[in-house]
Amino acid sequence: MFFECSRLIDGNQPRLSNGITVTDVDGDGAFELVVTGYATNNLVLKWDGSRLVDIAGPLLADASGCAVAIAAADVDGDGREELYVLNSDRASGPKEMGDRLFACFGKHWLDLLAQPENAGMANRVAGRSVVAMDRHGHGRYGFVVAADGGPFRLFELSRRGRLEDAAEDAGIDLIGAGRGLLALPFLSDRVDLFACNEGGPNFLFRNLGDGTYEEIAEERGVADSRFAGRAVTAVDGPGYGGFGLLVGAWEGPQRLFVQRSGGGFVDEADPEMSFPGRVSSVIAADFDNDGYEELFFNLHGEPNRLFGWRDDRWQAIDLGDALEPKGMGTGAAVADIDGDGRLELLVAHGNGLGGGSPQPLSLYRTAANHNGWLRVLPLTPYGAPARGAVVTCTANGRRQRRSVCAGSGYLCQMEPVAHFGLGSARSVERLEVRWPDGMTAIVENPPIGRLLTVPYPPE
Asked: What count of other Cβ atoms lies within 10 Å of the Cβ of residue 46?
């Protein structure tokens, strides 16, 4: 499936890398890949037409940090995404190093958590993942931090422009050994939240419609308390009643929870897919544009795995160069870096928290083919990417669904674009975009082979 093109990353030296997000850092309308570094600098990798070059300034590089996870979203409603960087100088419990919340004003970046008015919001508990969540559907996001040894946090901007922890108000301030986070509307009409835990049952929070949540993991069959959940992503499988949950475990069985009509989930991972391993991250994406997502398991110190929908079932398929049998995988993300309509895969390695080995980043492409494609970028009322929106594409009478990524895998966040492979289809009958507040827009017969930007509907 994949062939390596890591040579396209300028100055790609061995390092301890962790999380990755895809966002427009420099405000030019194109997305960059931001890679966190543990006891080394963060990277902002920009495609210059022939390679990826690091454009991080000293503040974003933050060479003294112990960065683990990262996510982007528009917190203040200015149309630009902020960056939340989760630092952890130890594996669990109290930590010395605080997190960063970088905001851009004009061309200058500022750490909001370093401002005197936000001093009380410093996060002093170790964590592993962060996800953007628009719980009210207003177009202004908060960041959920999965703590390890403390309650989950939800950082939002108050009307006075100060940061506050709204986790208790939202009803998500539970204590766990938080790992992967996933936020999208898969239980209700608003943004719900799933959280993997390593030392106990997973959490499943359903939005009650007013921005508050109830925890229903046991009731819906996804608590899975015997195993160490590590990573999660949403899956749009053929015949699924709603989004499925692909959950990767650390040295435990992998899960593919499929939602049934009654609202409960059933694990449909067969023995090959569920085989235990040290899974660091999981991704669902249509890499070959055949109209069906592939499921990528990034492992730490073991060969990676890839599954595709073949002959009406999930089957293991050849990874090609992305097998990485000795890769110390930590995080992975997808994006169409060069605008050719095919997704690239970036894999980070290292893991300073676990005493991992420095390794270079890995970049992979797939071979060109004649399959059609369409990419959809929904915007908030403020003009920022509408993370958590759901896009449905109908082509040749078949429907596909994608959620605009607010955070998934583990430590990571994919590009804020709904990517659809179309296979042999040469037209799309209909697109439906549904925003986190329930607002919808219909686009009939959209052009294919392009990135389609869909603004929030006018009142």
From this structure: 20
